[in-house]
Fold:
Amino acid sequence: GGHDAQWSAGVEDLIRDSGRNVAPRALFPFTRTGQSSGVFKVTHAQFVQLMVLKAGVEGAQATTKFLLKDAKKLAAAPPNEDQRNQQVTSAEIFAGVSRGLLMLFEAEEMSVIYKTVLLPYLEEIITKIPISIAGAYFDAFRFGIQFSDSRSFLALTSWVVENIESSIWQSNGEEADESMADGEEATGAAVGSEGFTLQSKYLYLGSAVLVELDAYTRKQEDQPWFTSKLTVSHEKDQVKDEVVESWQLIKEKL
Structure:
């Protein structure tokens, strides 16, 4: 009758919490805000990350393209009882490949990979996923870029900022509203609703980038104790120089 079995309610919570994997070796998220989604499984993302790392520099991009091809199918899953799980899995795949690539390639190479592989994937699926799944991609963004050189994901930062700007700023919006015929009002309302939903997705994802960008700029001695083995050490002046371009982009555009 559409009701969950009562005996399994507690079991479902246990499985969800274990999937978040809060053991010391896999603490995530590290700082600021907790996980946005209750269904994003860190262990799944780590498994995909390991697959990319095992492929090495030579095979990482081919492995990523293969995995993202399946992720696209999952993100566009038709309505069924497993649709949400399939769409969340697509976020976990994206998180894993992003993190794996960032660990293998330098900033200049990652800029090219983002523009040719990762961003085309996002362009295709962000418009397809429902707003209810945006939380999983929020966690995917954070997992993928956490404590990374901000130059490595500058292309992602630019993409998010540009989409926020383009979705919010409509130069011909007022003229279009004034010239709309009475018979087109319903259609216009529907389009407006869809546009607002898309704006919300981009703003949500943008906040994930800002959280990790802010975390990266803080002084190394202010970092929690467990980050020492998980981050690459940088000189303070170098860290400051690295983030200037990202913050400048955000301040100028938004």
Q: What stands out?
A: Confidence is low (pLDDT under 50) at residues 22-27, 171-183, 186-191, 232-237.
